[in-house]
Amino acid sequence: MKYDRILLISIDALSKKYEYLFEDYFTTKYDKYRSTATWTLPAHLNILCGIPFPKLFIVSRMKDYDKYKDYASNIPTIATLLRDFDFKSRAVTGGGFMSSFFGWGNDWDKWETTEDSRNEWCGEKILPKKNELLFLHTYYVHNWFHANAKMKEAFLETKNKLDAGLPIDQKKYRALLKEGEKEYAKRAAFLAKKLSWIKNINRHTLVILLSDHAELFFGVGSFHHGNLALKNKKIFYVPLLLKENTAQKTVVTDYMYDYLIPKLIFDKLELPFESVAKRVLRTNAELKNELAMIYHSRFWKLLAFLRKIKKNSLFFRWQSCRKQKLLANE
Length: 330
Fold this sequence. Notes:
The protein is 36% helix and 17% strand.
């Protein structure tokens, strides 16, 4: 096995435009990596499970979040796949759509979340142990509108009006876009600087940095993410960077998608890969065969038992005696 540690970092809402800030720490860049979702929950289901979830494509309003409760609880993730090869799994996430409320952590050895942004992981050095997958997730860049109370108020007012299809103050909107992108870029640069420790990480560690979706500041139809950014395909343009055990810099120009991340990890570890979907189908088939064998065995046991009862019954004995007498009289 080429690597015995995996570090998977997800910087929520990091656009490909700011990929250059992180490139120096990595050896491989996927130039045409694309997300297939515009918000956190489905994008990370794709990344960690390897299954596209088209029904979750459009984000719902907050009042509808309850219908996604425990959504991920019955879906095997890469943690289950790696457990077959004696890998443990640990996650440190920013909560929200990555919290246990939505079912995350059901098959992980440890899943830590925080709902307090002041305690959120924000680029601090945390390393995986031997034979461990460590998943680090942060909303720091995503939460650019938390910079100050005025910006947060302007953002929420604009977002709510756009969601409801109401008119907005264009002057205030343009100011929000300008100031918002400035704060966003500042946060991306800050996080990139804090992650400089990646450059000197253990050569036995495979490091992957990616994002779930981009963040847009182009105007109506191309603002923020989720259903407010569906008119601009750049919402799907996000970074995918790998630090491999080589000094050679590589740019991969083939198209690559978020739901292929589990296979990519297995390929880099030089381990045989079976997708979650195939695993579920195989497991169900094996269970079906096992149940069939059990029922088959029980059927013959039951038949033998009934025959035994029949032989020992008074009616059967009387019938046997009667047959013997009839044969004797003949």
